[in-house]
Amino acid sequence: MSAVAVAPAGRATPDVGITRFGSTLTGTGRMIRFILRRDRVRIFWWTAIVVLLYPYYVVVLDGLLADAESRQEWALSATTPGMIAMGGPGYGTDDYTVGPALANTYVTWFILALAVMSILHVVRHTRAEEESSRSELVRGSVVGRHAPAVAAVLTLLLVNLVIAVLSALAMSAASDELGLTDSIAMAAGTGLAAMVFGAAALVFSQVTEHSRGATGASLALLLVTFVLRAAGDIQEQHGSALSWFSPFAWVHQMRAFVDLRWWPAALSVGTIVVLIVVSAGIASRRDFGGGLIASRAGRADARASLAGPLAMAWIQQRMALMWCALGFASLWFLTGTMIPSMTEIFGGMVEDNEVMRAVIGTDPANIVPGFLGVVLLESSLMIAAYGIVMALRPKAEEAAGRAEIALARPLGRTRWFGSQIVVAAVGTTVLLAVTVYALWGGAASVGWDDQTFEQYSEAVAGYLPAVLLFLTFAAAVFAWLPRATGVGWFLIAYTFMIGVFGEAMDLPDWADYISPFHWVQEVFVEDIDWTSVGALWAVNVVLVLLAFLGFRRRDIPAV
User: Does the keyword Membrane apply (predicted)?
Assistant: First the structure.
């Protein structure tokens, strides 16, 4: 007679013994190949956009810093509290060339972009797969418990490595002032900082039971560390002790193109290793499908207000809206505090620099309105990206099979699809209002009152239909061509290039017409053209009608 040992109820059997370690990684190579094949398009676009932005900004800065006077004015701007908060601690201002300007101005933003990519990648291939039960099917084959997580981390490392190498080569090729060694240090440090947040997302994927919770917690950590770095750098020149609690600061402290030192990168490497070990320990002891923190028990019966598809859409989107609103409010409030110093910082540069005149404006007296126009464009594009993501929530529901279950009930397609679009549109509107009024609040907090609250309110009214057009366009594409939804992201990239550098590139007039923001007036310079606003609303209505028509006519699932 044989006996079978059974683990106590409620406790998973550990997988960490030395004799069993190899079996927990079985199938890692196949999982790596699967992830690379599955995400090949996504990886390509992330890599292409980030790598191309490096030489692009190098060329732009090379034009902006064309003479000694421009370099001095730009160096002075790098030491202002607002620029330190948004960029970095301001190394190399004594001899401000393209290299230090690139590191001080754009490293933070490259870290943010790559960190978001890293968080989404890790959660997508760990907690999201487990939540959808696909991991359970995969593990039914010869695949170890830790193989999916290890594969996610290794593929993320590979992607960040490729981006770092290509970015360094692109930077050094774009300007003779940028040495290859410093370029490698800056790109590698940025990639390692992004990997820290990817490793943190791996831990949160073990702690929480839902992918939205893991993503939200990871993005919250990203925001907190951004604020810590900004607050620490403002407290003391070149960073204070508070700065060192943030991976953002570790990259800046490498001092690329100024006084290169490699040892701060070891902080990122050590943190990544610790987070991966912690994640492996939690994953070995928790129940598969569950999290370290169990979900609290809910009501026996749902409230009447949660009985419809509108409430379900709100539940699915509310956490993303909350975290984005918090992040945007903090980011643009800090930006608003910089508004009073724009004329002093860029006045001489606008007069003498053709590139700066093309970006901000030709009249030195209108520097602040020009600066606000650039800020509103960039912030609106971020909000438009949120709108596209939320507009594609029905695609995620359809791909996961939940749409079929919902529509099997006495629930019409129009009502189900419309609920998702309505909540996405409301969230997009809220983010635009938060962004614009945060800019006003930041400027008002430092005594700036040249632009009135009514003008900021007009900015919300003017930009809203243009921002929503990205959402309705993505919804229409999904309804008719669900496999071509990436076109929405191409529209965002195109609009950014046209809106910020269109005049400098001297493109034909018709190229501007494609951008929704081309039809928005410069609200801080002239009155809003309500005819153009009405036309944008009309286009939104047409796209919504097309979206509903296409979704009602096609098969489900079609993705």
Answer: yes
Q: State how far the Cα of 180 lies from the Cα of 182, in Å rounded to an integer.
A: 6
CA atoms within a 13 Å half-sphere pointing along the CA-CB vector of 40:
5
Other C-beta atoms within 10 Å of 269: how many? Answer: 12
How many structural domains does the chain have?
2
CA atoms 501, 507, 513, 515: torsion sign: negative
Same domain, 248 and 331: no
Tens-place pLDDT, residues 181-215: 999 999 999 999 999 999 999 999 988 888 878 88
In a domain? residue 182? yes
211 shares its domain with 262: yes
Could you give the CA distance from residue 402 to residue 478 in angstroms, rounded to a whole number?
17
End-to-end CA distance of the chain: 52
Residues 278 and 321 in one domain: no
CB atoms within 10 A of CB 492: 17
Q: What is the pLDDT of residues 158-186, one digit of tens each?
A: 999 999 999 999 999 988 889 999 999 99
Please, which residues have CB within 8 angstroms of residue 537's CB and are 6 or more apart in sequence? Answer: 465
Q: Which domain holds residue 477?
A: 312-559
Residues in contact with 42: Cβ distance below 8 Å, sequence separation at least 6, in sequence order: none
For tokens 């097309």, name the residue: 546
- Secondary structure (3-state) at 19: helix
Both 337 and 435 in one domain: the answer is yes
